[in-house]
Amino acid sequence: MQLEIKNLTFAYNKKEANIVDNFNLEVKKGEVVALVGASGSGKSTVLRLTAGLEIPDSGKISIAGQTVAGDHKFRAAEKREVGMVFQDYALFPHLSVEKNIGFGIDHLSKSKRKARVKELLKLVNLEGFEKRYPHQLSGGQQQRIALARTLAPGPKLLLLDEPFSNLDAELKDKIRGELNQIIKEIGVTTILVSHDREDAEFMQAREIIMN
Ligand SMILES: Nc1ncnc2c1ncn2[C@@H]1O[C@H](COP(=O)(O)OP(=O)(O)OP(=O)(O)O)[C@@H](O)[C@H]1O
């Protein structure tokens, strides 16, 4: 299994009800899974726990066979090799596209990093955009750059939180198609959060209903 979640339980406020309560999930390598369900059902929280942005109250999370949370272990977010794209893309506004994408691969030599950035820009169909800044990009282009940045280090797991929520209907169809193609092309194991089941169908994802 690429991701294994066992009896995961978590509350933001420990005096209140659990937001995630005994949640279980197994995702195979290369699989695309969609967490769908009502607002407030804890979809984003499951992603945050998987990424290492929250500490579970109990239960266990394993990525590619290694325990990252539970059994008295906790691996920090930056050591999990998990890539997450947030709803608002969160590109660094003061950095060029090239530097945004290169952010997570600064362990590579300058020439290798440059080549990797080029490769990713090709993947997301934005060749030649290296020197642009986020404010010079459309919403859809920003989203693709955010995806390229997340994919740059070659994550074991790609987490997408409502990736289409900021896009108008027409753009949404286009982006969904492109995203689907990119994910399938590189075969990255993906968990997508959406309040819209149509997104899951479009991405040919296995649906997990949360409530
Ligand atoms: N940092 C936080 N502190 C306290 N409560 C929080 C925090 N983040 C989320 N919550 C609460 O936890 C619950 C689950 O939130 P979560 O974002 O996981 O749901 P969701 O299913 O992704 O919803 P949506 O579709 O609206 O994004 C909500 O009731 C929310 O108000």
From TrEMBL:
Question: For this protein, what is the EC number?
Answer: 7.6.2.9
Question: What is one cellular component GO term in this UniProt entry?
Answer: membrane
In what residue span(s) does the ABC transporter domain sit?
A: 3-211
Instruction: Check the record and name the SMART domains matching this protein.
Output: AAA
Database matches in InterPro entries = AAA+_ATPase, ABC_SmlMolc_Importer, ABC_transporter-like_ATP-bd, ABC_transporter-like_CS, ABC_transpr_FbpC, P-loop_NTPase
Q: Which GO terms describe its molecular function?
A: ABC-type ferric iron transporter activity; ABC-type quaternary ammonium compound transporting activity; ATP binding; ATP hydrolysis activity
Going by the UniProt record, its keywords in alphabetical order are: ATP-binding, Cell membrane, Ion transport, Iron, Iron transport, Membrane, Nucleotide-binding, Transport
This chain belongs to the protein called: ABC-type quaternary amine transporter
